[in-house]
């Protein structure tokens, strides 16, 4: 279903030959309207890939008619030629679809610092355009995979309108926003400013709270396109909720498929003085390599949680901190709590609760354990 | 040599039975004077172990007659009982040496959140006191090891006076200051304020620039004791240089023995607008798990260096960044530079140079690669 679950959209995914192994590597998503509203959020990494710079620019109109995405190369740190390649890609899409290049967003993912093989990519665009279909969502989702073992899609349908989407991402997964590439579509009749607000509200509490490995990508892109084809005009709250549900579902799928991970870790920070404090503490816990190793070893090592909390600027008193792992309060008042042998860590999902005892705000950050498989996968990635 | 290289100091290292495996686990260092000046720097982690809180307090006088250190337990996150245990340890040292408890610093290292076995530790203090010797420095250095494979000592002798020291530390190694436990001694005749300044000047550019795994300990302690026994009164610059050399040497030994590491990585940031920028960028590179995996795989993946730089607030323009790995400028002006196949990464030491092209300041941060052995060692640490 993916990006074609909503009415008014077609998509395709093809093998253009960008990837040496012949796997699908080029996706096209087209909004047939009647509306062509769009919004996007992008990596806050200051080293931005050429397609990010391009897409930020074209989105200033609040309209998009198409998105072209490739895996097999990030087109990041590729200099002026990289930007020309992105421009040429958009021009090619514009040519085959008889639209303007300024109506085409571009997204790329793969290795940084390698120019794209344009002699393969441009013919791939022609091929994808020929295969555009209202049933092409799955193929598009498959074509944007890199080290992903699964393709990721999500759909929410309610009251005659739909929000659907696809995502890729398995490593370099610490959005600021965001992680990876995501295209969301809706057939609700929503204007660009509303799309923008709904998308920012949603990503702030979903993709922005995924932190698999602390490494922020140069290519993170999340786009939301509205066709208006359902004719429905949902209330903002309903629309935002649907977008947030799809983003949350895709975020969860990203964590579940993170490189080499054996555990999905839900870090919940409660009783913080502010939401910012809760996020800062959650992120510090999520990025603590020693803790991530301990969780991999099914060791409820709460001392590493406390040492991570201690490096933050959040409001708390060390002797009032409480920590639960999978519901067992192994740390009470900054010291030894319930018996750590009571903690059952056999399952993939592990829940860490950090109680700052400093207020009433909370936040959830999702992360993964740190494993030898992660090391192996990322030691050999570009060789 | 270690802490007994300087005249006026005795030391001992014994097996008190704190460690289940019977290895040495308790060290004692005593300053026989005539001077008893001392200074210390401690972890900036807000969750501080009981011995850190104690030692910070007793150091306010600027004098110490003894330091007692134990491995086999950090006495961190152990509540009021933990502080009482530290106090009782200092009282025991005071009793056997016939001095005041307020003249005794305490340092502990090992697992967080486990009470110390005082029934073993206190007799260990008596045993260590009986073995105090002017040749006890090596044994003391051995007794403070945890996962260290080697004990770490360093000595600089010049113009009739000496600075020597010992260190332990192999994991949770991201000082803010500092890493781990370090005791430095000197027989130079230096007062406490001067010791304090020399120690802070030294640690700022040595221990504070070691970042093996991004995880800051609750127990980091660096002490510097002066006996004045040489009668020498060196100029500040000479004394500070000697302290910095010893700290630099010990820092380098810590990196060389970091848990599971196969590479020591020297991250040098040059042409930064400020030293703070250089340190921020160096630390961001040093903490990038994906890059650390790539270095482990001997992959000169400069894209991961750029993506790490891009997450900082330092002054730079993305298209002016240059990166060299082992002297080969694989990234020029934010894009592809010299052939990455020219980079020889067979040796343990790897040098990454990041040129921000934004000024004339620089800094060096030392880190390690991320390996499956690190994961294995830290998945099983407390079980």
From TrEMBL, chains A, B:
The UniProt entry annotates the active site at: 179 (nucleophile)
Q: What do the Gene Ontology cellular component annotations say?
A: cytoplasm
Q: Which GO terms describe its molecular function?
A: L-glutamate N-acetyltransferase activity; L-glutamate N-acetyltransferase activity, acting on acetyl-L-ornithine as donor
Task: Please list the GO biological process terms of this entry.
Answer: L-arginine biosynthetic process; ornithine biosynthetic process
Q: Per its UniProt record, what SUPFAM superfamilies does this chain match?
A: DmpA/ArgJ-like
Please indicate if the UniProt record lists Amino-acid biosynthesis as a keyword.
yes
Q: Which Gene3D superfamilies match?
A: ArgJ beta chain, C-terminal domain, L-amino peptidase D-ALA esterase/amidase
Transmembrane residue ranges? none
Site Involved in the stabilization of negative charge on the oxyanion by the formation of the oxyanion hole: list residues. 109-110
Q: Which Pfam families does the UniProt record give?
A: ArgJ
Which Enzyme Commission number(s) are listed?
Answer: 2.3.1.35, 2.3.1.1
Annotated residues that bind substrate are located at 146, 168, 179, 259, 378, 383
User: Where is the site described as Cleavage found in this chain?
Assistant: 178-179
| Cellular compartments annotated | Cytoplasm
From which domain of life does this come? Bacteria
**What do we know about how this protein assembles, alone or with others?**
Heterotetramer of two alpha and two beta chains.
Q: Any idea what job this protein has? A: Catalyzes two activities which are involved in the cyclic version of arginine biosynthesis: the synthesis of N-acetylglutamate from glutamate and acetyl-CoA as the acetyl donor, and of ornithine by transacetylation between N(2)-acetylornithine and glutamate.
Q: What family is reported?
A: Belongs to the ArgJ family.
Stated name of the protein: Arginine biosynthesis bifunctional protein ArgJ
Which gene carries the instructions for this protein?
A: argJ
């Amino acid at each position: 279903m993916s990006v074609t679950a909503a009415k008014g959209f077609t998509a395709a995914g093809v093998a253009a030959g960008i990837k040496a192994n012949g796997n699908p590597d080029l996706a096209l998503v087209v909004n047939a309207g009647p509306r062509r509203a769009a919004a996007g959020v992008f990596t806050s990494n200051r080293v931005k890939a050429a397609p990010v710079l391009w897409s930020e620019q074209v989105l200033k109109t609040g309209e998009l008619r198409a998105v072209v995405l490739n895996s097999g190369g990030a087109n990041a740190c590729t200099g002026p030629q990289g930007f020309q390649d992105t421009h040429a890609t958009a021009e090619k899409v514009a040519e085959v679809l008889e639209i303007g290049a300024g109506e085409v967003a571009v997204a790329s993912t793969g290795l940084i610092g390698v120019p794209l093989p344009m002699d393969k990519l441009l013919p791939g665009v022609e091929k994808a355009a020929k295969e555009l279909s209202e049933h092409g969502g799955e193929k598009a989702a498959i074509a944007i995979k890199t080290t992903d073992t699964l393709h990721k899609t999500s759909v929410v349908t309610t009251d005659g309108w739909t929000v659907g989407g696809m995502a890729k991402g398995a490593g370099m997964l610490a959005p600021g926003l965001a992680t990876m590439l995501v295209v969301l579509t809706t057939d609700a009749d929503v204007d660009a400013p509303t799309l923008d607000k709904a998308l920012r509200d949603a990503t702030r509490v979903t993709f922005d709270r995924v932190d698999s490995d602390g490494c922020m990508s140069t290519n993170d892109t999340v786009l939301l396109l509205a066709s208006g084809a359902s004719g429905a005009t949902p209330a903002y709250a309903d629309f935002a909720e649907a977008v947030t549900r799809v983003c949350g579902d895709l975020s969860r799928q990203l964590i579940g498929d993170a490189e080499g991970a054996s555990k999905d870790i839900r870090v919940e920070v409660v009783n913080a003085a502010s939401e910012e404090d809760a996020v800062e503490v959650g992120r510090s816990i999520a990025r603590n390599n020693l803790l991530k190793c301990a969780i991999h070893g099914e060791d409820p090592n709460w001392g590493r949680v406390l040492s991570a909390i201690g490096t933050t600027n959040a409001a708390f008193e060390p002797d009032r901190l409480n920590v639960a792992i999978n519901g067992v309060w192994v740390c009470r008042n900054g010291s030894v709590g319930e018996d750590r042998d009571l903690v059952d860590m056999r399952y993939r999902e592990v829940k860490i609760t950090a109680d700052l005892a400093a207020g009433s705000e909370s936040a959830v950050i999702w992360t993964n354990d740190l494993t030898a498989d992660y090391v192996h996968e990322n030691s050999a990635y570009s060789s």
